[in-house]
Amino acid sequence: MSNEKTCFVYVTYIRSTAEKVFEAITQPGIARRYWGHENVSDWQPGSAWQHVRASEPHTVELVGKVVESVPPTRLVITWANASQADDPGAYSRVTFDIVPYEDMVRLTVTHDELEAGSGMANGIQKGWPIVLSSLKSLLETGQGMDVFAKPKAA
After folding, report:
1. Where are the beta strands (DSSP E) in 41-121?
2. How many CB atoms within 10 Å of residue 153?
3. Tens-place pLDDT, residues 30-65
């Protein structure tokens, strides 16, 4: 792999409040309803966070640190596969920016410091759109989507 870095940005508008969007990202009981995982931390800068599979056996799949937390408008975390937790070069960064509008918010997720062409870079390009669509669906309709769904065979 090269040392070239890449970035993925996803913007969506959600008919909700900044507080509810921030809670959906940071509260395990809400995240499991649209992500199939729980994000576990006290969300204080410098604290660890874990992305834990909601179903048995509750595997820790991703880990990182909280870089910045400004509820309810901004959260910045580092992000790596749990199996690569000891490799500082394996970490990327995710920034959640939440901007209130009249009766909605604009959520911008920026996942940067990704190694270009890596499995992580390829995976998040598929993962973020369905996860964030499911988040939007949950907050607007009360029901998330199956983020593990596969395309129907042609």
Report:
1. 48-53, 60-70, 74-81, 92-100, 105-115
2. 4
3. 999 999 999 999 999 999 999 999 988 999 999 999
Tokens of 104: 């909605």
In contact, 76 and 25? CB cutoff 8 Å: no
Is 95 exposed, middle or buried (CB count within 10 Å of its CB: 0-12, 13-18, 19+)? middle
In the numeric block, the tokens 């006290």 are attached to: 42
Contacts for 116 with CB less than 8 Å, ≥ 6 apart: 2, 4, 5, 6
Tokens standing for residue 37 = 């995982």
Query: Where are any strands of DSSP class E within 84-140?
Result: 92-100, 105-115
User: pTM of the prediction?
Assistant: 0.95
